[in-house]
Each structure stands twice: as C-alpha cells, then as structure tokens.
Amino acid sequence: MAPSPAPYADETAGQLAxxxxxxxxxxxxxxxxxxxxxxxxxxxLLEFKLAINDTPAVLxxxxxxxxxxxxxxxxxxxxxxxVDLNARRVRVYDSADYREAIHQTYATAASRSTEGxxxxxxxxxIDDYLVTGAARVLEVLSRDExxxxxxxxxxxxxxxxxxxxEVPGSDKENLLAETGELRKPxxxxxxxxxxxxxxxxxxxRILDRLNDKLKKIExxxxxxxxxxxxxxxxxxxxxxxxxxxxxxxVIIDRCAGTGNLQRGLDAIPCPGCKGSLxxxxxxxxxxxxxxxxxxFEYLELLREFATRVRAVIPPTVAAGDDSGFGxxxxxxxxxxxxxxxxxxxxAVGSPVVDDNGAQVRQPNSxxxxxxxxxxxxxxxxxxxxxxxxxxEAQKVxxxxxxxxxxxxxxxxxxxxxxKSKSTNNRAIRELTNLFIWSGFRYYLRQPTDSYxxxxxxxxxxxxxxxxxxxxxxxxxxxxxxxARKDAGVSVVLWANVDDDxxxxxxxxxxxxxxTGEIFPGALxxxxxxxxxxxxHTTRALLSSLYDTRRLETDEPGIVCEPNGVETNRKxxxxxxxxxxxxxxxxxxxxxxxxxTDLRTVLTRVSLFSATxxxxxxxxxxxxxxxxxxxxxxxxxxxYWIRGVVNRTADNGDNFSSDRRFLxxxxxxxALAHHNKVRSFAGTDGRKYRNELCFDEGTLASGELAxxxxxxxxxxxxxxxxxxxxxxxxxxxxxxxxxRFGERKPVYDQSIPWGAYQIAFExxxxxxxxxxxxxxxQVADSPDLNGALxxxxxxxxxxxAEVITPSLWSFGLVR
Length: 814
Prior knowledge:
By secondary structure, the protein is an alpha/beta fold. The protein has 24 helices and 28 strands.
C-alpha cells in the first residue's frame, strides 16, 4: 500500500484515500457511512480529521456518534478510531472506557459543544497507517466486537422495532416477558445488557409504542401527550359539575393503556367530596375505573393505580384469561364478557343457567355503578383508532388477527344502528366508533351522564354517530400523538341528552411547541390558524355528483394504474369502459383529507382499483372538474383542515353556472401534476389522446378559448400559461442522448402532452453519489426540471389564493 500525497486538500479526499487503501478488506464505502458518521467498520467507529488539534474534543464527537447509534437501535462498536489524516496517525480507544458518556442523551450536533471532554484512559497509537502501520490497522478493523448497552426509555422503542423487524412473529410478550429479549437477550446478546429493573415502570409512558406493527394496527394505540391530557381535564371537571347534588360518580376509561389520562387526576381535589375511605378529602382519581386489553399495560395499571382507583379491570388474571396474543380476554371492552359479564361455569366446565335458561354471568366492577341510580357515569376515553380495511391490508404473515372487526359490540352496532338507511355504514369499520357507540349504548343511562372523548371529528361531523347535546370541546394536533402528519383530533364533552338539530360545533384549537408548551391556534409560522374552529356537519359526498350515465356508444375498454399507464393485471375491480365521448376517468369519493393521492385520481382510462369513480365525458367534463380541484385542496401544515374539514356536495352543483370558477378549475386541472391523463396507444388498438391539457388542439384548449371571451385571463393566469409554454419549450429539447448515449428526438409532436406525462417520461434523472455515500437523483435536463417545479409552485399558490376561497363559498368544503 503506497501512501497518498500529503497534505490532503480536504477531509473527504483523505477519508476516501483511507478506504481505498483498505478496500479489499472492507464493505463498499456507502455501506460504511451509517447514521451520518464517517464510517462504521464492524466493531469500529471511525472519525476522520485533516488534523487533530484537540484530541478530547474529537473523541467526544465520536462518543456522541456512539450515543446516537444506541438511541437509534444500532449496535455500538467496541472501538473508536480517530484518524489524523495529514499526520498519518490512528488513535484507538475502547468504547467501554466511555460507557457512561455513551449512555447520555445529547441535544447538540456531534461536532458542536465538544470542548472540555476528559480522556479517562490510555489508548493505542498507530503511526504511518498506510505503510508500516497498515497491518495493525487491518487487525483493528477486523475486530467484530461491540459494547453491550443498557436499554433505557430513551432508546427502547427503536430497539423494540428492530426486534420485531428482525425476528418474524415476535411481539411485546417476546420482548418484555421474564424470559423475553430484554430480560434475557438472545437475538441481541452481543449488543445489549439484560434489563434487571423490578418492573417496567421506567417505560410506563411508552409501553403503547412497544407493540409490534400488527398489534399497533389492531389495537390502534396512540399516546396522548401530557399538555393535551391536562387541557382535557377542564372538560372532565365540567362533566363532574353536571353530577346531581348527593350523587356519587365514576369516571370510566375502557381503553386506559398505562393510565396516561388518569395520572394527573390525582392532583385534582374532588369537587364536593367530603371524605374518602380514610375519612379525608380525596382526588378525582379515586372515582376512576380503568381497563386495558393489553397484558403489560394491565400490569402497569395494577402497579400504579390498584389502591388509588375504584377498580382496575380485569380484577383477576384467571387461567384461560390470557388470549395468547399478550392480551387479556376479560379486558376486551368490545366483548360480551366485558359488557354483560364473564360466563359462569360449574366444576366440570359446563355453563351455568338460571331458572329461565339464561346464561349466568359474573359482571365486572363497572356493573354495580351502572345499577345505582344515585351514581352518575362519566366516560373519559381516548379510544384506539383503526380501520378494518387498513388493518387487514397490513397483516403480518403467519400471524392471526385479534378479531375486533368480528367483535360482539360490532355485531350489536351493525344490527341496531348500522341497518338504518340514514347511517353511514363505513363508520362501523372503524374501531374508535365501536367504543363511542357502545359507550352511549351500554354505559350512559341518565341525562346527567357525560362522555369526554378524544377522536377525529367525523363520527359526529359526517357519520351521524352521536346526536347528543354538545357541551364544549377542543381541537388538538394529531402529530403530537406519535402520528406522522398534522391532523385534527377533537376532545368533546357530550351530555347524554338527545339533540338532532345541531349542525355547528365550535372547538378551540391548541398546538404544542417544541418546548412542550400548549398554546391556542397552531404551530405554523405562515398560518397560525383560527382562534376558533367551527365543525359543520356534512351529508353528501362528492360522488353524489358523478355522471353515472351509460350510453349506447359505450364499449368495453382498458384499465390503467394510478400513474395513468395501462395495467397488465389480469383482474381488477373497475368496469373497463370506452366511448367516443369519454376523455378521462375521475375518482373523487373521499370526504376527509386523508390519502388524497388514492382518493382523488384523474386518468385517461378506467382506474383498475377504483370502485367509486366515473367516466368523464366531453359534453359535461367542464362542470365535473371542480370535483378533482376540490380533492386537491392542500391541508398540509394546517391540522384544523385535515380531519376537521370535509369535501362535500351538500349544496349540489351550485357552482356549475359560474363560468369564471369553471375557467379557474380548468386551468388548474390542465396544468396540475396530479392530473395523470396521458396520451398513449392502448393494447386494444385504440389511440388515447390527452384532451385535458393545454397542448394544441385539445378539448381543454378549446374550452379555455371560449371561457376567456367573457372572463379574460388574470395576470396570475397569464403567468401560469407563460410558465406552461416554458415547460413545453424545454420538453421539446429533450433527447435520448441525455440518458442512453443516443441522439434521437423524444418529444412526439403528434400527441398532446400534459405536465404529468412530461415529468414522468421526459424529466428523467440519474443517481449521483457523494464522497460520503449519499445518493442524490440529479435531473438530466435541469432546465426542464426547474420549469416543472416552478409551474407546480405557481399552481399551488393559484389554488390557495384564487380557487380555495370559492370552494368555501360554494360549500364544496366545510
């Protein structure tokens, strides 16, 4: 190995020279550069510097990287190599000497605030690492050794997720049991120490996050952030204020998890309570009854609340009570054994029946309070959220379903509520709604009973699940509930009094800052949102405005993928339709702003997976495009929109005679990247043209020419059309040479091109890998790529500033 010329011009050059020198013995460089480090080679962390002027500072930087590896669920190398490039020197440290520092959590970047770190032990120095010291460097790099780290609440979630990912079929039971992975490591034997805590109290606030993927989907568990919990206590106190004088009351949570909602109630004195069992005033917590379906959460509830609440359900963990999924059958709030009582059996296991032949049941601890007319019931819950379709689509191979979709409560809800012609049967598919419906059906008996419930607003906004007296409520940002996107989650206080007339529900929105402080409005620098959000009920979906005609000229056709390309699938759910007047296929069936790209789709031919779309025809397409435009209204960063506002056709097609609005919707659709209409030759021998773009001779171009006679283009619209012309000009310059080394024209001027087809077929990219292994996709035609991105930005602003106000005024969103 020959030394590289010195000195190196920059750190990257020296780093690559080091790896090149030992490349025959190492993995590819891009596999070594993990977690933004300079490199991890088996049991060694490498940190490169042109010159090391402050050894403790550089060592501390490396220690921070090791802490980051620990926190992200990665094994921690047993050795640290500090490479002084221009001095050709490697310093080797044992990670174990810095174990305590590695187990700290650092808020600053690894390269910042590194001064003052103390080197606590000696270390090996290897000089001339490319020549005389090369053999020793190879010996060090070949050591596959790791520092077993302690599992703490800061890192347990990523390690748990890695365990579920790498050990097929594993769940929380395999992770947390006395013989589980954390107590007695097997899979991570070389990487973690045995957890020796007396219980799991250290993890009590994050036990819900330790579930494997299937259980998270089925149980719908998501954590309620403390600032929102504290705010919701205002509604709980309002519910307590509704308790008649002289009544006892209980606060029931059938899905308490580890008691996150209840924990703070211990600090709130019970209004009106004169004494407890000990004869002294007691807190609101003493009125609670808590339950959970999950075994480890139940054990945590017992540990923390058993002597401080009215009851923890199930009261016993009897033989056969464990379901085998790490869940407890007696804690299944959707089962008949929870609602009606556990069936009683005799000594030989036969059911015990009463004189009337009815099954004898032993009710749980809630029932005595339900039977007491002098006891007021308050439900205080954050029900789990899951959808049957979403859950079933994500089952893990070899694992059974928990079965809540076939639960006793769901069957009762379907029989009693779901058969009504006025109800939305889709609501029965959602786990949250099973809790809400059963709460009112089986637990709230008197007008002074109350329900304080966390949930997306659709259960009362569009699904008609609750028609009760609205006392008050707040709107919270779902992102803080371990969710990935901003969305609205309501917490509402309902009185158990019927109210069919109300259609508007004012909620006060609150967000949480990075420092954990709650404040009104939203954490959004450009738009803090309204101080009050009024949730309006909606009835009609946009799909009620579909064109459902079938004409004599219609024939069987072909179907496409969501990207507009003809599919080669053999089976599909859509009726493939062709007609001389059909110019597209539109799906705009969703009320909420969830999964927009799946629920608002525009293609040239029928979409293979769509069960709720329609053929767009040349004689009325102009009045149907507003459905597409409504579906593309942006909601990102505004949580009071997502999960709160619906797309709706409650006002019918009151917009169809407004030619200015139709012009605006046509411009947006014809230029939108999300318009997936393409020009192509189908396998059925037909030529499919894109008539919904502003290329020469298209229907869209013809309609625009008519519309601008009475409603000329605004300056903003002129700018959009000018930018579209710039996109077309750059598209016509694209050649295959940019990709394949040939020089043939790519742009086919015989067919109309829309923005999406240009972006998909002509705006090609190639990968470029940096010295640190980061791969970036770089445009083959930067001018075309830039023109398309500019058009997209301009069009988004056009929708927000010009079109969106009209959507509100026409009632297409509310």
